[in-house]
Amino acid sequence: MRGPSAAIVTGATGALGGAVVKQLLAQGARVAVPYRENEAWRRLRETTGAGPQLVGLEAVLDEAAGARGFVDEALAALGGRLDALALVAGGWAGGVPFEQAPEEEWPRMLRQNLDTAAHVCRAALPALLKGGGSVVAVGSHAAETDGAGMAAYAVAKSALHALVRVLAAENRARGVRFNAVLPGTIDTAANRAAMPKADRSSWTAPEAIARTVAFLLSPDSAPVSGALLPVDGPAASGQVLRCSAGVPIR
Asked: Closest by alpha carbon to 68, among 12, 134, 124?
């Protein structure tokens, strides 16, 4: 599979974001990532084993000015080129009915799951439009079902899905594609610790989702734009996934 040459990955210091970074680096891309904590950046460098291909920049993305500053610095580090953007940053809250949730949860979920993606897209689009490219956002399967017990999260992710569809329609003819992957429960150490008695047989490994993200960012997925692709089942390492059109996702 051909990969992009220059990519930005938000949320890279998390389990899924780190897996996406590792996949893109393995395909030969240069990757720029934001981070908030030095220790998280150090761990990412260690786990990926990356050298100068990976660039880290301290940034806060849920404010427009912070996102613009990060993208400007990332573009400078990537030589002014950008052909892939993975919007992995987000957050989860839930566990109680809507009226019992803390009031601050609503704006926090919108800020983490929608505003961050919108700010980064707005800042990155001029560079993507120069040479064409692909954007993949991480949505949520829960936002396309009932989302019970996680109203703020589900609404924020639903809004992100709508943003992906709108930007796909606005930019397809201009050479930039937008898609989203919709995970269920991701098989991470944090989720295992939070749900030690849960049945993990239907959980999805970060690496499997990362392979799907990398496919959607690659030129091999050129016919696909505006898709909300569920990635909510188990996939063994190395297993070949197929989208609805039968195209292999390796």
From this structure: 124
> In angstroms, rounded to a whole number, what is the distance separating the alpha carbons of residues 141 and 104?
23
How many angstroms separate the CA atoms of 205 and 125, rounded?
A: 30
Please tell me the predicted confidence (pLDDT) of residue 11: 97
| pLDDT one-digit tens code per residue, 51-89 | 899 999 999 999 999 999 999 999 999 999 999 999 999
Residue scoring higher pLDDT (24 or 194):
24
Residue of higher predicted confidence among 168 and 188: 168
Question: How far apart are the C-alpha atoms of 138 and 117, rounded to whole Å?
Answer: 10
What does the alpha-carbon distance between residue 135 and residue 85 come to, in Å, rounded to a whole number? 5
Alpha helices in 103-173 (DSSP H): 105-110, 116-131, 151-171
- Encoded tokens for 131: 């040479």
Residues 6+ apart with CB under 8 A from 89: 10, 11, 14, 17, 34, 61, 112, 116, 117
d(C-alpha 141, C-alpha 135), whole Å: 18
Neighbouring CB atoms inside 10 A of 224's CB total 18
Which tokens hold the place of 222? 């050129």
Q: Which residues contact 184 (CB under 8 A, 6 or more apart)?
A: 141, 142, 202, 203, 204, 230, 231, 232, 233
Measure the N-to-C terminal CA separation of the chain; round to a whole number of Å.
Answer: 8
Q: Spell 153-169 as b/e; 16+ CB within 10 A means b.
A: bbbbbbbbbebbbebbe
Helices (H), the chain: 15-26, 38-48, 64-77, 105-110, 116-131, 151-171, 189-194, 206-217
For residues 139 and 161, the answer to whether their CB atoms sit within 8 Å is yes
139 neighbors 227 (Cβ within 8 angstroms): no
